[in-house]
Specification:
This protein is 50% helix and 19% strand. It contains 13 helices and 10 strands. Helix 1 packs across helix 2. It is globular, with a radius of gyration of 20 Å. Bound molecules: ligand C2E and magnesium ion (3 copies). Ligand C2E binds next to strand 2, helix 2, helix 3 and strand 6. This is Diguanylate cyclase. It comes from Winogradskya consettensis.
Length: 286
């Protein structure tokens, strides 16, 4: 960052900042090409029904198979994609690929498509016609709208409120499931939550992480589950790593579970196997 000092502003750079900038510019240029070159990959993490421990669907999580840097985490390039606007083509690709994969599994198993959750950035609400894009993808892939879930953070409820509300109402009318991701970390008010057509609250991993240890987080997780119940929303606990966390959330009445305890996000081939062989005993090994 350039520092402004007093009235006469001048910039000071240190070499570390400069190399950070160069790296960022390189990565940005590479990300533009990544889409064309087909370097993006989706991994899938199962969502499990708390009552019978069966796989009910997957969350699609993007990764970047960089030619020299290896597999890059979305935490390192989603913010860049959002800042540059590349999130629009990237987000569209993720949506189409996740729906295509759900339809492929459906053909292979002869079962209706699994529920597929896709993360959408708040930038996709203001930089593109998200509703038109989602409709296009559903038509192209044949994915039924009620099999698709869109995950968004609380910021979608809190910025450009009226515009975003209008888009969410249309998506909801198509039959799409809407989920609030990382719930509890933002600042959305209960009034917003009631106004928006939200189906699902995903309890942020930070509350699940400290379940039991710290009474505050246990109380918060339990409050979110009860909030969901009183608003007629289902709840998904993110980041379950241990049996104790699963048991606590199940006792609270949380609807669905996700986390390394069941499975890490895995490539499509492995996720497909989970789908075929999802007897409760396979996933829930205490
Ligand atoms: P998220 O949507 O909240 O996804 C959950 C993240 O938690 C994933 O990280 C997942 O691998 C990780 N996770 C799941 N279970 C556990 C667990 O038991 N323990 C721990 N420690 N972590 C767990 P990932 O895949 O690195 O994604 C990070 C974030 O990047 C996502 O958070 C989401 O905000 C964003 N992201 C990923 N894919 C996309 C995408 O296609 N579009 C957009 N806009 N954002 C994406
Ligand atoms: Mg998510
Ligand atoms: Mg999350
Ligand atoms: Mg997150």
């Amino acid at each position: 960052k350039a520092k402004a000092t007093g009235g006469s502003s001048f910039a000071t750079y240190d070499p570390e900042m400069l190399s950070g900038l160069v790296e960022r510019l390189e990565l940005e240029a590479d990300l533009r090409l990544a889409l064309e070159r087909g370097e993006l990959r989706l991994h899938y993490q199962p969502t499990i029904d708390m009552l019978d421990s069966r796989v009910i669907g997957f969350e699609a999580l993007v990764r970047w198979q960089h030619p020299t840097r290896g597999l890059i985490s979305p935490m390192s390039f989603i913010p860049l994609a959002e800042a540059t606007g590349l999130i629009v083509p990237l987000g569209r690709w993720v949506l189409a690929e996740a729906c295509r994969q759900a339809m492929e599994w459906s053909e292979q198993t002869g079962q209706p498509p699994v529920k597929m959750a896709v993360n959408v950035s708040v930038r996709q609400f203001d930089r593109t016609d998200l509703v038109a894009e989602v409709l296009e993808v559903l038509t192209e892939t044949g994915m039924p709208a009620d099999r698709l879930c869109l995950e968004m953070t609380e910021s979608v409820l809190m910025t450009d409120t009226e515009e975003n509300l209008a888009q969410l109402v249309k998506l909801k009318a198509l039959g799409i499931t809407l989920a609030i991701d990382d719930f509890g970390t933002g600042y959305s008010s209960l009034a917003y939550l009631r106004r928006f057509p939200v189906d699902t609250l995903k309890i942020d991993r930070s509350f699940v992480e400290r379940l039991g240890e710290q009474t505050d987080d246990t109380a918060l997780a339990s409050t979110i589950v009860q909030l969901g119940q009183s608003l007629g929303m289902s709840t998904v606990a993110e980041g379950i790593e241990e049996y104790g966390q699963l048991a606590a959330l199940r006792a609270m009445g949380c609807t669905f579970a996700q986390g390394f305890y069941f499975s890490r996000p895995v490539p499509a081939a492995d996720a497909g196997r989970l789908l075929l062989d999802s007897s409760p005993s396979v996933l829930e090994k205490r």
